[in-house]
């Protein structure tokens, strides 16, 4: 069907346009809803345009018009605004022609119009309501074609139903070519933080009268003789504090005629602090197991037949193992074990000339479930151990005031605070330029600075490698020993 917009109707429309006063036209070059034809020619100008259903286009021409012809008004409708402006309205999917003719019969514009549905809204809706699906929507005449993949058959039926409601037509207007594909396995990044603080306090003060040996120095004054026999440090991690291994002892001897009195004065006070911090990170596929170890192995001798000794190795250090399973709604189930171990003299075994060290271990193993990005304390420990003893001469050690000369007090307190935090993330890839490494920006110091200033590296690294961000004061690779923040 050909629709002719007659001159009389056009005159009425033009009169209405003049009554409204000609307003300046705001053009948007390159916009799909606006088309302007230049006066350069040649005429007629032929154009192909594509409109979405229920969308419109404003056409501006360089000369006055007499007639506008539209081949299919059910697809495209034309409304004359002024002598040089025509408004096209897309009503339904399909194709149509539009002819623009001047008063002298000259053909100004021949327009090929293809009306298609704007499928961006439908595509966004499908991706939002059907997570994990990869659906492409294409128009083919009045029909829609769905291609791609979904997680399960139910999602395929739901996608077809949504597309049918979008175009408001019967079900056979949607061609469902979706395939069911299992979702790709998610990757999980696990961050583990092990933080521990150990505090140790020891105090000893008293008088004892043991048999003395190993004299180091002697001071004599009248009838009194002083021997300072021991002044040794001891490891903070030692479970006991033997007299012969720690503290300061002074030997006192008093002689008068045939009477000798011998005593040992013990004096000891010491505090210690140990801080342990480990933050291992590792990534694994959903349902797969991953392990991580930063440490080493030490040999353990094992007795074998024929008086031979074999060696087995025991791992120590910071180790983590976990097996993640990604559940629905972004939740993650974790089977995780974390351990921090170190060599220790506590519990060490000496066999002949062979010394086998012991391991000091803090470990936890459990199963957790949490959302991505959440942090949970999988284990914690608060330990407070106090040891106190009093030794002395029976009867005399309980005397007021003077009893201190006949007794010895030992006191030790050990406090430990330990927490293990875990944080899982649904991991994805990243650009290589976003990945950092500990050696970025490092540059060794020159020979002159190493000799005269003791520098191990340059202060700011090589030019152009400063880290991004705002910094105040000194920053970069600065190594100072001892730590200037520690007072001692």
How would the blueprint of this fold be written?
Elements lengths: L2 E2 L2 H13 L14 E3 L8 E8 L3 E5 L6 E4 L5 E7 L2 E6 L3 E8 L5 E10 L3 H10 L4 E7 L2 E8 L2 H15 L6 E7 L6 E22 L8 E5 L2 E9 L14 E10 L2 E20 L2 E5 L4 E14 L5 E18 L4 E21 L2 E18 L4 E17 L14 E21 L19 H6 L36
Parallel strand pairs: 2-4, 3-9, 11-12
Antiparallel strand pairs: 1-5, 4-7, 5-8, 6-7, 8-9, 10-11, 13-17, 13-18, 13-24, 14-15, 15-16, 16-17, 19-20, 20-21, 21-22, 23-24
Which features does this protein show?
mainly beta; eight-stranded antiparallel sheet; 4 helices; 24 strands; 52% strand; disordered N terminus
Total of DSSP H or I helical runs spanning 4+ residues: 4
How many β-strands, per DSSP? 24
Structural class: mainly beta
Q: What kind of sheet is the major sheet?
A: 8 strands, antiparallel
The SSE string, one letter per element, is: EHEEEEEEEEHEEHEEEEEEEEEEEEEH
The helicity comes to under 10%
The Cα radius of gyration reads 45 Å
Low-confidence stretches: 1-31, 211-221, 226-246
CA-based shape: elongated
Q: How would you sum up this structure, described in words?
A:
This protein is mostly beta strands and 488 residues long. 9% of the residues lie in helices and 52% in strands. It has 4 helices and 24 strands. The strands form 5 sheets. Strands 13, 14, 15, 16, 17, 18, 23 and 24 form an 8-stranded antiparallel β-sheet that branches. A 5-stranded mixed β-sheet has the order 1-5-8-9-3, with no helix packed on it. Strands 2-4-7-6 form a 4-stranded mixed β-sheet. The longest helix is centred in the N-terminal third of the chain and has 15 residues. It is elongated. The N terminus is likely disordered.
């Amino acid at each position: 069907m050909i629709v002719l917009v007659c001159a009389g109707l056009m005159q009425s429309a033009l009169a209405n346009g003049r009554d409204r006063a000609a307003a300046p036209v705001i053009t948007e070059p390159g916009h799909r809803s606006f088309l302007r034809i230049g006066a350069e020619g040649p005429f007629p100008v032929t154009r192909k345009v594509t409109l979405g259903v229920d969308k419109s286009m404003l056409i501006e021409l360089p000369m006055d018009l007499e007639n506008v012809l539209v081949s299919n008004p059910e697809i495209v409708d034309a409304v004359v605004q002024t002598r040089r402006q025509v408004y096209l309205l897309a009503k339904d999917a399909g194709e149509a022609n539009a002819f623009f003719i001047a008063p002298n019969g000259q053909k100004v514009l021949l327009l090929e119009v293809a009306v298609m549905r704007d499928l961006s809204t439908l595509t966004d809706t499908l991706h939002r309501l059907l997570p994990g699906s990869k659906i492409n929507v294409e128009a083919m005449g009045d029909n829609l074609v769905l291609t791609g993949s979904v997680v399960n058959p139910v999602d395929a039926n739901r996608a077809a139903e949504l597309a049918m409601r979008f175009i408001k037509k019967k079900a056979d207007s949607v061609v469902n070519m979706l395939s069911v594909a299992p979702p790709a396995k998610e990757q999980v990044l696990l961050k583990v933080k092990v933080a521990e603080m150990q505090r140790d306090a020891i105090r000893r003060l008293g008088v004892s009268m043991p048999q003395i040996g190993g004299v180091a120095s002697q001071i004599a004054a009248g009838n009194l003789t002083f021997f300072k026999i021991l002044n040794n440090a001891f490891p903070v991690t030692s479970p006991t504090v033997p007299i012969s291994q720690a503290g300061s002892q002074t030997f006192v001897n008093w002689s008068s005629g045939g009477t000798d009195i011998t005593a040992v004065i013990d004096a000891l006070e010491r505090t210690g602090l140990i801080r342990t911090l480990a933050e291992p990170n590792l990534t694994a596929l959903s349902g797969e197991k991953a392990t991580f170890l930063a440490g080493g192995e030490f040999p353990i001798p094992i007795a074998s037949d024929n008086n031979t000794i074999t060696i087995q190795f025991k791992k120590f250090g910071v180790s983590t193992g976990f097996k993640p399973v990604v559940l629905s709604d972004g939740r993650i189930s974790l089977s995780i074990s974390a351990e921090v171990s170190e060599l220790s003299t506590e519990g060490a075994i000496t066999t002949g000339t062979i010394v086998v060290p012991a391991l000091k271990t803090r470990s936890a193993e459990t199963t957790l479930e949490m959302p991505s990005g959440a942090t949970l304390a999988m284990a914690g420990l608060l330990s407070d151990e106090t040891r106190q003893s009093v030794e002395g001469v029976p009867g005399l050690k309980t005397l007021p005031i003077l009893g201190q000369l006949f007794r010895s007090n030992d006191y030790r307190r050990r406090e430990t605070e330990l927490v293990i935090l875990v944080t899982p993330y649904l991991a994805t890839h990243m650009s290589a330029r976003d990945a950092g490494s500990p050696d970025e920006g490092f540059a060794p110091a020159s020979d002159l600075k190493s000799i005269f200033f003791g520098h191990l590296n340059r202060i700011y690294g090589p030019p152009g490698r400063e880290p991004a961000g705002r910094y105040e004061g000194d920053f970069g690779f600065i190594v100072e020993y001892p730590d200037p923040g520690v007072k001692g």
